[in-house]
Design a protein that fits this description.
By secondary structure, the chain is of the alpha/beta class. The protein has 13 helices and eleven strands.
């Protein structure tokens, strides 16, 4: 995930700033509130947009699971719901998540976020596990939020663009790059690839503007920043750690790039490989190396924790360039861009197609059954029932068996051999 390397004090200040422009959400831990009002702090509900609220649906009716990591991502996810739902009566005893429930098109969606201050692969996997306990019928998984871009000659990635995980060039949609070994003066070797999600695309800038017209309290932090703030610096230019001065004062001249025209998609949608790890990417040299050698389009911190436990499409709004020049100016807009892309995706997917999909929880169960070691005693007991008496006794007298039995050895048999 992008822009998480600041001090704790800066993080707390930023969190308060985001919440000041935020909404209060109806979660499983909170009582229902009336539509179109504010909570006790005076903050608007549902992204500042009045939305109809339905009565509680059964947990089994939710087929789309949406996971996000930090506050701007959660706000954006709630803002694109068509309506919100009351909490269902049932909740698994071991589920510690907070949820927002609602609908997008004809799909019922359950949204969960990582606990405040917790990031990375393990936290994401824990949230997904708990979600499937309470909402076992989830069939589509979405991981939606922010990422750090990896622009290259092949991919003109700008701040505010959206990157979607899709397979390509023999790679899965998500690569856990810290499974590889990074050794100075030696080549990077990556050794793990993950599941392959589907592809889809749409232009979204006008939809963001329309949403912000209705959600005025979100405009300050979620509107598109001035184009002049989108600066990509040379790989060798670094911003000093904890230096609060602006990059324009300390980091030299940015790379000159042509402005996008009215005919260009802005934000643009990019499809390809997303790199995921437990560590924040703030290294332009490693960024460029992985972009060149692996075709990586962006970096983040949660997806690899999900893909083998909660197969999902990963959608990332680009808020920085995965280097030392990080700031939070583009977080709001980029989070909204990713959320609206996910919304448009769900509008395009027929509910019948979702119903035909297998449940994620069932897929995980089948995988676990396949991975569990076989119980040979069961096969042995079945074979005994089918045995023919006085058969296979010649093996006990064979030379190879006599040699084997005279020393400490093992015998490997494909299938079950019964001597009766």
């Amino acid at each position: 995930m992008a822009s998480r390397g600041s001090s704790q004090e800066e993080s707390n200040t930023s969190e308060r700033k985001w919440k000041d422009a935020d909404l209060s959400h109806n979660t499983l831990h909170e009582p229902k509130r009336a539509q179109g009002v504010t909570d006790n702090s005076g903050l608007p509900i549902n992204g500042g947009v009045d939305k109809p609220q339905q009565i509680a649906l059964g947990a089994e009716q939710y087929t789309v699971g949406w996971i996000c990591a930090i506050h701007p991502e959660y706000v954006s996810a709630q803002a694109v719901l068509d309506n919100t739902h009351e909490a269902p009566e049932f909740r698994h005893d071991q589920d510690n998540n907070n949820y927002t429930l609602g609908s997008i098109g004809k799909h019922h969606v359950v949204i969960a976020t990582l606990p405040s201050g917790e990031y990375g692969l393990v936290s994401a996997a824990s949230v997904a596990r708990d979600m499937l306990r309470s909402f076992p019928n989830v069939k589509i998984g979405l991981m939606v939020g922010l990422g750090g871009g990896a622009p290259s000659d092949r991919h003109d990635i700008r701040l505010g663009d959206v990157v979607v995980s899709v397979p390509g060039e023999g790679e899965g949609g998500v690569m856990q790059y810290d499974y590889g070994r990074t050794i100075q003066h030696q080549a990077f070797q990556q050794i793990s690839h993950l599941n392959k999600p589907p592809a889809f695309g749409n232009a979204i800038d006008e939809m963001i503007n329309d949403l912000l017209q209705k959600a005025r309290r979100l405009r300050k932090l979620y509107s598109r920043p001035a184009q002049s703030t989108d600066q990509l610096y040379n790989t060798s230019d670094t911003h000093a750690h904890n230096d609060i001065t602006s990059c324009t004062e300390e980091c030299g001249d940015p790379i000159s790039r042509p402005q996008r025209t009215e005919d260009d998609d802005n934000p643009a949608i990019h499809y390809g490989l997303i790199a995921s790890a437990n560590q924040l990417m703030k290294d332009a040299i490693t960024r460029d190396k992985l972009a060149t050698e692996k075709g990586v389009l962006c970096f983040e911190m949660e997806a690899a924790g999900l893909m083998n436990h909660f197969p999902c499409l990963v959608i990332r709004g680009i808020c920085d360039y995965s280097d030392t020049h990080k700031n939070k100016d583009w977080q709001g807009y980029a989070a909204l861009a990713a959320a609206i892309y996910a919304q448009q995706l769900l509008y395009e997917i027929p509910p019948a197609k979702v119903r035909a999909e297998g449940r994620i929880s069932d897929m995980i169960l089948k995988l676990k059954e396949w991975l569990n070691p076989p119980d040979y005693s069961i096969d042995y007991e079945k074979a005994k029932e089918l045995r023919h008496t006085n058969t296979n006794t010649w093996i006990l007298e064979a030379d190879f068996f006599q040699r084997w039995s005279s020393v400490r050895s093992h015998i490997y048999s494909h299938g079950t051999l019964v001597i009766a």
